[in-house]
Amino acid sequence: MAQAVFVANRDPDLSNSHVISLAPGIYLNDFPDPIIRPMSIQSSSRTKRAVLQATVALPNQKGILLTFSSLTVRGLEMTDAFIDDSLGGNGAAIRDQNPENIAATLVVQNSLFHDNQTAILQGNDIQETVTIINSQFKNNGNPDQSSFQHAIYIDEAASLTVSDSLFCGQWIGHEIKSRAAQTMVANSQIYAGEGAPRNSGCRVGSASFVAVLVLAGCPMVEI
User: How high is the mean pLDDT in each 10-residue block of the chain (223 residues)?
Assistant: First the structure.
């Protein structure tokens, strides 16, 4: 994967669309350079996921995928992202740091995030739209009581839309935390503690709130 991102990053023509299709399997510590141009990363199979797994601390101290541009993720499993607690203890599966005031997009479809300190951490871009569809966020968080990580943390964005997704087993922080100007959560299952279905693979979480929405405007919020 890292080599494919390397090649796509170096295409100077932003009108070109780059789609990186990964064969199902485990991509162990396959950490690409920061993503600096729009691209999609997806599993090549509709029924089996490509697994991006970390067994060492993230070398960029931010995310398995670190993006400074629009990114679409489809059919991936992302797991075990971490950094040392002395560095914040907030290693993310996806760290989204678009420049300010760029109409970028982050789209996540049909993906699984589990056992990361943070699944998705976004910030900086007040014009960005974030869309999460039919995805699962299980057993994320940092057990360190001085840490306060979240499954999803959207810090600055135009909108966050979450639909048909599952959140469970989060430690300490929130399942969903959003400061987007507009946030909508629909047709989703969110478990802050007990109650997740037995076959879901979810532990008993300790999230402080199911969802915390700290917003500048008056968005429509539906659960």
Answer: 96 89 98 96 96 98 97 98 95 95 94 97 95 96 84 95 94 89 94 79 73 47 45
Note the pTM of the prediction, 2 decimals: 0.92
Looking at the chain, the number of H-run helices and the number of E-run strands are 1, 20
* DSSP state string for 46-68: SSS-EEEE-SS--TTSSEEEEES
Q: Say if residues 35 and 54 touch (Cβ distance below 8 Å).
A: no
Radius of gyration of the chain (CA): 16
In a domain, 220, yes or no: no
Answer whether residue 222 is part of any domain: no
Q: Enter the tokens of residue 66.
A: 């670190």
Other CB atoms within a 10 A radius of the CB of residue 163 amount to: 15
Q: What φ, ψ does residue 61 adopt, rounded to 5°?
A: 65, 20
Number of structural domains in the chain = 1
Which residues make beta-bridge pairs with 107? 72, 131
**CB neighbour class for 58 (10 Å; exposed up to 12, middle 13-18, buried from 19):** buried
- 36 contacts 9 by C-beta, under 8 angstroms: yes
> Does the residue 218 lie in any domain?
no
Structural domain containing residue 52: 2-213
Distance CA 18, CA 166 (A): 29
Amino acid letter, residue 166: L
Q: What would you measure as the largest C-alpha separation in the chain, in angstroms?
A: 50
Q: Is residue 221 included in any domain, yes or no?
A: no
